[in-house]
Amino acid sequence: MKYKRIVVSKRGPPENLQITECELRDPSAREVRVKVLATCVCLPDVQARYGLSPFAPKLPFVPGYAIVGIVDAVGPGITQAVPGVKVAAYLIIGGYAEYVYLSENQIIPVPPSLNPAETVTLVLNYLTAYQALHRSAKVKADDKVLFIGASGGIGTAFLQLGRLANLTMYGIASKSKHPILAEYGATLIDYRTEDFVEVIRRAEPGGLDAVFDGIGGDYVERAFPLLRRGGVLVGYGNPLSMRGLLRTLAKIVVLNLLPYGKKVKPYGASAFMPFNRKPFLEDWAVLFRLLQEGKIRPIISGQFPLLEAARANALLESGQVVGNLVLVAPDLL
């Protein structure tokens, strides 16, 4: 029996996402075979395809940062999963496939009642927003915060989680996306027609408690002075190259040496997860509970059949997406 997956064999546009077939083998010892129900389509997938990362995967590779699926078969020695159980996994690569093989310690338990398409957005995008808010910045009710890049999968997660935390929120997004984002209670700033620095200085002369930046570039230098004494800027964007990474780290060192106790903190789950998965499992459990209780509801702009990854990637690259795009197994559409 064979299964299909999406492979990148050369750098470049979405057309380079090609469908290939593989033999469906039995899982080996301490390995779980999972039938993929949903995988997110996210900016890191696009950046990996173009090679825009300090640690871009070598060709060929299967994109797909996160999946939700059903355990299909288990190898000898597995104790945490049985066939039929719903699970998730934070993969970085490998998710654009009808089946994936996981080691036992990659499994994230998922409540069976949760919708796979909604749940998979929590594994990466909501985790990033939640940990940036509560572990990096340690926000408190009534804190004043700015989200740079408020309309994507992570940005909309910030808005929903920020509303739950009773934050005073400002968000940067293009004007066309403001109507969809308005319900979350943030003051929205159009980066094309407004200077966010001037807007924030007028609205919050005492400064912001935190800034969350997923864009990079000159946003860091422009946003850092907007912080109050003791404020924090959390950067979670990909620096795109090794030179960019080194430049970003140097910038962080310099800014953190300035007076008034302001800090820049880089955030990257994949850098820390291999050393201690406990806080990640705790935070996923919180997010799954919030979804179950209806306190968060991911914005999903489009669901595509799993093998139509090229079409979904092209839409993401168009810049028109608000929230998330998800690839799902055909029987879920």
Counting DSSP E segments of at least 2 residues, the number of strands comes to 15
Strand content: 25-35%
Question: What is the average per-residue confidence, as pLDDT, rounded to a whole number?
Answer: 95
Rg over CA atoms:
20 Å
What's the story with the biggest beta sheet? 7 strands, mixed
Low-pLDDT segments, ≥5 res:
none
Spell out the CATH superfamily of the largest domain: NAD(P)-binding Rossmann-like Domain
Termini separation (Å)?
24 Å
CATH fold assignment of the largest domain: Rossmann fold
CATH architecture of the largest domain: 3-Layer(aba) Sandwich
SS-based class: alpha/beta
Q: How helical, in percent, are the residues?
A: 25-40%
Helices and strands, in order, run as: EEEHEEEEHEHEHEHEHEHEHHEHE
Number of helices: 10
Kindly give the count of domains: 2
Task: Describe the fold and architecture.
By secondary structure, the chain is of the alpha/beta class. The protein has 2 domains: 2-110 and 299-332, Medium-chain alcohol dehydrogenases, catalytic domain (Quinone Oxidoreductase, Chain A, domain 1); 124-270, NAD(P)-binding Rossmann-like Domain (Rossmann fold). Helices cover 30% and strands 27% of the residues. The protein contains 10 helices and 15 strands. It has helices at residues 43-50, 116-136, 153-164, 178-181, 196-203, 219-223, 242-256, 269-272, 278-292, 309-317, and strands spanning 2-8, 17-23, 31-41, 66-74, 86-90, 99-103, 108-109, 144-148, 168-172, 187-189, 208-213, 227-235, 263-266, 300-305, 324-328. Strands 3, 4, 5, 6, 7, 14 and 15 form a 7-stranded mixed β-sheet that branches. Strand 11, helix 6 and strand 12 form a beta-alpha-beta unit. Helix 2 packs across helix 3 and helix 2 crosses helix 9 (278-292). It starts with a strand and ends in a 5-residue tail after the last strand. The relative contact order is 0.15.
